[in-house]
Amino acid sequence: MSQSAKKRVLSGVQATGKPHIGNYFGAMKQFADLQDEFESHIMIADYHALNTVQNPHELGDNIIGVATDYLAIGLDPKKVVIFKQSDISAHTELAWIFNTLTTMPYLMRAHAYKDAEAKNKEISVGTFDYPMLMAADILLYSPDVVPVGQDQKQHVEIARDTAEKFNHLYGETFKLPKELIKEDVKVVPGTDGRKMSKSYNNTIPLFADDETLKKAVMSIPTDSKGIDEPKDLEKDNVFALHKLFTTGTEFDDLKNKYEKGGMGYKESKEILIKNIAAFIAPLRAKRAELEKDKNYVLDVLKEGGKKAREIAEAKMAEVRAKIGVKLY
Q: What is the chain's mean pLDDT, rounded?
């Protein structure tokens, strides 16, 4: 299939720290899996990250870190445009234009805002307006699909709504994207059973060393059922993670012992640790190699920024003409 015949995919992650296995299975793995089938544009959302990271050295390190993570999990810069949001000024320009079409009550429905409000947090304008910047992120590149976790589905819906508002007012301009959610990893459970999230402090880092991995898995709470007692497959958080890392006859045997009895939680956790470690080891080794060549990672971002900017600026030229500010 020629590059031009391929459908386009756009997604990304925030530069807010080290990724965890929830980030990987919820979104990042899809980036790698789709790179041959789609024309892929994968972003580092560094302006979004400013809502939580306001230390310049930390943010800079995080940006390099995410780019390195992308390459470590197998994204090929010959196939994928890897870029950082802040290199393309059209993102914030288009977000402002979208702000003028959007009401406050509409944005008050957004999950991030409602979550912050429920926690009685003092809410920044950036947090409140987060969905508009994300709509701009998406719509600038006319993607057919946006791979996201279940918790991000609303953002794609908001992007579609925003595209429809603009198209209705100014004429057909933006493609309406569809979310792509893998059914088997809609929500990856954290060590406490809630959705795996840095904000819950319940993560297993994607590139964890063996000691960190062991500590995280062993901390997963379980019920008091003994070795010989059957266990609830649907409620056990250890088993939920086995579905991602344990395969073949080993998984079948483990499932059978859960259902009929014959395995304690300690043994189950030890098997899980072994299998996660085997999965992480080659990714961690690849990442360690990439860390030795920071200039290569920077070059990938610079080149990706040039390619992304061409697409974004072409769309913004159309937008400026449509809204009436392009006079010469």
A: 94
pLDDT of residue 187: 76
pLDDT tens string 130-172? 999 999 999 999 999 998 877 788 999 999 999 999 999 999 9
Decide if pLDDT at 122 tops 70: yes
User: Residue ranges of the domains in the chain?
Assistant: 3-188+294-323, 207-287
- Residues of 18-36 as b/e, b for ≥16 C-beta within 10 angstroms? ebbbbbbbbbbbbbbebbe
HEC string for 265-298: HHHHHHHHHHHHHHHHHHHHHHHHHHHCCHHHHH
* Whether the predicted pLDDT of 1 surpasses 50: no
DSSP 185: G
User: What integer pLDDT is reported at residue 255 of this predicted model?
Assistant: 95
- Please tell me the distance from the alpha carbon of residue 176 to that of residue 145, in angstroms, as a whole number: 9
Question: Judging by beta carbons within 10 Å of its beta carbon (0-12, 13-18, 19+), is residue 4 exposed, middle or buried?
Answer: exposed
Residue type present at position 134: M
DSSP letter (8 states) at residue 205 = B
- The answer to whether the beta carbons of residues 15 and 46 sit under 8 Å apart is yes
236-252: pLDDT as tens digits:
999 999 999 999 999 99
Collapsed DSSP state (helix, strand, coil) of residue 142: coil
Q: Name the CATH topology of 3-188+294-323.
A: Rossmann fold (3.40.50)
According to CATH, the superfamily of the domain at 207-287 is Tyrosyl-Transfer RNA Synthetase (1.10.240.10)
Max distance between CA atoms of the chain, in angstroms, equals 79
Enumerate residues 6+ apart whose C-beta is below 8 A from 70: 28, 31, 42, 44, 80, 82
Q: Assess whether the region 3-188+294-323 and the region 207-287 belong to the same CATH fold.
A: no
